[in-house]
């Protein structure tokens, strides 16, 4: 079932339920009111009957009879009874007519009035005092008005409910379409976007401010399209550069092998050819392993083991790894920014991957500064851990900074240094997997500062 139909159905059912509940409530109150109104009519007639039978001093019985007969509508099957209050053996003497329970008369004597109902006949009784003692005046009638009144009310409620149902269904259809119109607009735009036009973006309908849920949905789609476009471009660049980088050493190996197989060659030239093939094979092996590492890291983190990591211990591990890779390095740990609270130096992640990522940055700093001093520092806030690597090397040209995380890209001033342009892209992938970011600040011939920002543990 479509969401628009669900909205319409839910809206209709909810409104129907409220209207039905209110209708029952109105019907119940009207029914109660009809009872009270009829009892009030009977009581009025009982008082008039009592005053006509026992008029107060200075009044005329005829006047009460005229008022009752001319100005009061006679009720259906109306009957009047005047019953003297008499007791025998301590018990009220109940008359043969009307045949009412003792409790009715006892309540009239105690309270001065009472009502009673038997099927559709209603009774109202009052107690009056007169010169000869006390009497109970009872007036009864059949409440035919109630049936007519309630039948008319039911008819009105049914008609109103039918009209309301039609209006509610119509309003539900209109509002469901109106509410989902921006979503349909986005759907039409998304359907038109494919791998050939990933540059297109989703826009909301005119008149929307983009701050509601539909605007957030459009923004989410656009962010996804940004990532997809970047991924497609990166993939295309990766395939293009990888084929070139892998093809170069393979061509060199094949060429040297062909030369080695041509005729007789002295041992020295054979050794030179084999040495060049070994160098190119090692280069090919390094590129292949780097590409494998880059592919295996992924972005979902589901294949990796995540644990609580102390970032100060991570820095010490990076220093030990750097000492093994470059025994003569001048890397030093700067403790001046270390936080005083140890619990701030905690993150969630994969220790080996983070060690690899930061080691790549440190080894690059050593290489591109010609083994000058490199500073490795750690700072922390309540929400972030920041690893800072600073060198005094050749720096990165400003025009090359946007591309340093692209696979196989190498800055224009690095031609005299050996490298394949895979270390920083691998590092960037690992840091993004840990929901962090890398900030690079660099000046030509003055050095580079790289800050790795990682989210702290709560």
Q: Write down the oligomeric state.
A: single chain
Put simply, the count of helices is: 9
**The CATH superfamily title of the largest domain:** Histidine kinase-like ATPase, C-terminal domain
CATH class of the largest domain: Alpha Beta
Number of domains: 3
The strand order across the widest sheet is 8-10-11-13-12
CATH architecture of the largest domain: 2-Layer Sandwich
- Largest sheet: number of strands, sense, barrel closure: 5 strands, mixed
Overall number of strands: 13
Mean pLDDT: 81
Strand content: 15-25%
Describe the structure.
By secondary structure, the chain is an alpha+beta fold. It has 3 domains: 147 residues, Beta-Lactamase, CATH 3.30.450; 106 residues, Orthogonal Bundle (Helix Hairpins), CATH 1.10.287; 149 residues, Heat Shock Protein 90. Helix content is 53%, strand content 17%. The strands form 4 sheets. It has a 5-stranded mixed sheet with strand order 8-10-11-13-12, with helices on one face. A hairpin with a 3-residue loop joins strand 12 and strand 13. Helix 1 runs antiparallel to helix 2, helix 6 packs parallel to helix 9 and helix 7 crosses helix 8. The radius of gyration is 49 Å and the shape is rod-shaped. The mean pLDDT is 81.
In short:
The strands form four sheets. The chain has a five-stranded mixed beta sheet with strand order 8-10-11-13-12, covered by helices on one side. A four-stranded antiparallel beta sheet has the order 1-6-5-4. The chain is of the alpha+beta class and 458 residues long. It contains nine helices and 13 strands.
């Amino acid at each position: 079932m479509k969401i628009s139909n669900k909205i319409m159905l839910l809206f209709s059912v909810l409104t129907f339920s409220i209207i039905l509940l209110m209708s029952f409530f109105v019907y119940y109150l009207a029914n109660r009111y009809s009872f009270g109104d009829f009892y009030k009519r009977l009581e009025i007639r009982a008082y008039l009957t009592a005053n006509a039978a026992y008029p107060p001093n200075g009044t005329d019985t005829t006047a009460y009879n005229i008022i009752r007969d001319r100005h009061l509508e006679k009720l259906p099957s109306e009957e009047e009874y005047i019953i003297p209050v008499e007791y025998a053996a301590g018990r009220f003497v109940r008359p043969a007519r009307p045949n009412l329970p003792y409790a009715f008369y006892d309540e009239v004597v105690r309270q001065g009035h009472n009502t009673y109902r038997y099927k559709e006949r209603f009774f109202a009784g009052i107690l009056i005092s007169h010169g000869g003692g006390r009497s109970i005046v009872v007036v009864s009638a059949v409440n035919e008005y109630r049936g007519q009144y309630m039948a008319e009310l039911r008819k009105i409620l049914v008609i109103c409910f039918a009209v309301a149902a039609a209006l509610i269904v119509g309003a539900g259809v209109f509002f469901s379409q109106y509410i989902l119109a921006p979503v349909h607009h986005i759907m039409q735009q998304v359907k038109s976007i494919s791998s050939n036009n990933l540059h297109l973006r989703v826009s909301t309908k005119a008149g929307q401010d983009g701050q509601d849920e539909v605007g957030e949905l459009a923004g989410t789609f656009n962010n996804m399209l940004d990532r997809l476009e970047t991924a497609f471009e990166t993939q295309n660049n990766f395939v293009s550069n990888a084929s070139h980088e892998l093809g170069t050493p393979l061509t060199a190996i094949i060429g040297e092998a062909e030369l080695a197989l041509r005729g007789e060659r002295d041992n020295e030239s054979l050794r030179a050819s084999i040495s060049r093939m070994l160098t190119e094979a090692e280069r090919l092996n390094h590129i292949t392993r780097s590409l494998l590492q880059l592919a295996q890291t992924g972005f979902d983190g589901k294949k990796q083991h995540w644990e609580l990591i102390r970032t100060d211990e991570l820095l010490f591990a990076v220093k030990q790894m750097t000492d093994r890779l470059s025994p003569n390095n001048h890397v030093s740990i700067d403790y001046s920014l270390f936080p005083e609270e140890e619990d701030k130096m905690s993150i969630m992640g994969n220790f080996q991957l983070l060690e690899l990522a930061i080691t790549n940055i440190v080894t690059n700093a050593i290489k591109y500064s010609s083994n000058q001093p490199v500073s490795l520092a750690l700072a922390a806030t309540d929400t972030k851990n920041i690893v800072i690597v600073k060198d005094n090397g050749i720096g990165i040209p400003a025009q090359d900074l946007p591309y340093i995380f692209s696979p196989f890209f190498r800055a224009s001033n690095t031609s005299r240094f050996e490298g394949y342009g895979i270390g920083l892209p691998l590092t960037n992938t690992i840091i993004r997997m840990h929901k962090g970011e890398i900030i690079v600040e660099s000046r030509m011939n003055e050095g580079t500062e790289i800050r790795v920002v990682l989210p702290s543990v709560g």
